[in-house]
Specification:
With about 300 residues, the chain is of the alpha+beta class. Among the domains are: about 45 residues, no CATH class; about 140 residues, Butyryl-CoA Dehydrogenase, subunit A, domain 3 (Up-down Bundle). The strands form two sheets. A four-stranded mixed beta sheet has the order 1-2-4-3, covered by helices on one side.
């Protein structure tokens, strides 16, 4: 049995030269696969590759992928924006003609917004490729760790669900073994109900009496519902033994389980059977809640 949860967390770090980075991945439940990327350090161009790597590994879950890049060795260059400086000098000269003011100082000009610019050093093509390759390699490692974390949580959930399936199977078997559902008991009850109808059958035709008898027989017979419950139990066990994404199919099975349990309760004419039906509905509801956490 290899069941994967949609909940998990992973973190991994890497580095090349003076650059270092850390990937942090968080995963929670979702109806489908919802990926969110937050990449620092001007590496937005890697988002498509990051999404493709996550999509290849996961089928469901809301996954947040965050990259923190530290470029300790990157030195910034200081430049003078000549266009802005010329504009400021022209404005200063124009003001000097209008008012009696001293000429602007160098310190004053350099303090003006936009005159001095800090520009990050541009990497060579080889350095850029090495950085991006290293970042993506660490992402693969982090995705693997996330899959392991989701798998560990899935193993715990799988054990819980497996126990719930066993409980459904046991309750279904108990229902089938009830004395009230044995052919002789069903026949006796049907005869009593038909006799009760015949006592008040003054205005009823023979066809109507046959219809009423058939209705009583159908209502008393829950063998079809029990057979379907048993079939669903086998289907659930086969899914739990599957290595693929099974969450959606388990959720569908929960609906089918619930449908049969509801019908069983509505048909029940025996207190013991009704009690089993209620217990079934309780276990099935717990089964459904856990199935919604599975990928």
């Amino acid at each position: 049995m290899s069941v994967s949860s949609m909940t998990g967390f992973a973190r991994a770090s890497g580095g090349v030269g003076d650059d270092s980075w850390t990937w942090e991945l968080k995963s929670v439940n979702s109806r489908g696969l919802d990926l969110r990327c937050r990449l620092q350090g001007g590496l937005d161009g890697l988002e498509a590759a990051a999404r493709a790597a996550a999509t290849k590994r996961f089928h469901r879950g809301n996954i947040s992928m965050s990259l923190n890049l530290n470029r300790a060795g990157a030195t910034a260059e200081v430049r003078i924006n000549d266009d802005v400086l010329e504009t400021m000098l022209a404005v200063a000269g124009d003001l000097a003609k209008r008012i009696d003011a001293p000429p602007p100082s160098v310190e004053g000009l350099l303090a003006l917004r936009g005159v001095v610019e800090t520009v990050d050093r541009e990497d060579s093509e080889d350095d850029r490729q090495a950085l991006e390759a290293g970042v993506l390699l660490t992402l693969e490692e982090t995705l693997k760790l996330l899959a392991q974390d989701r798998g560990a949580e899935g193993a715990r959930l799988g054990g819980i669900i497996d126990g719930q399936v066993d409980a459904i199977a046991t309750l279904t078997q108990s229902a089938g073994e009830l004395a009230a559902l044995q052919p002789a008991a069903l026949k006796a009850r049907l005869q009593q109900q038909v006799a009760a109808i015949l006592e008040d059958a003054a205005g009823l035709s023979e066809d109507r009496l046959l219809q009423e008898a058939a209705l009583l027989a159908t209502k008393a017979d829950v063998r079809e519902e029990l057979d379907r419950l048993s079939a669903h139990v086998e289907a659930a066990r086969e899914l739990l033994a599957d290595d693929g994404a099974i969450g959606r199919r388990l959720d569908f099975l929960a609906q089918e389980f619930n449908r049969e349990a509801n019908t069983l309760c509505s048909k029940s004419q025996d207190a013991a059977l009704t009690k089993i039906g209620i217990e079934l509905k309780t276990v099935i509801d717990q089964f459904r809640e856990q199935a919604q956490n599975i990928e």
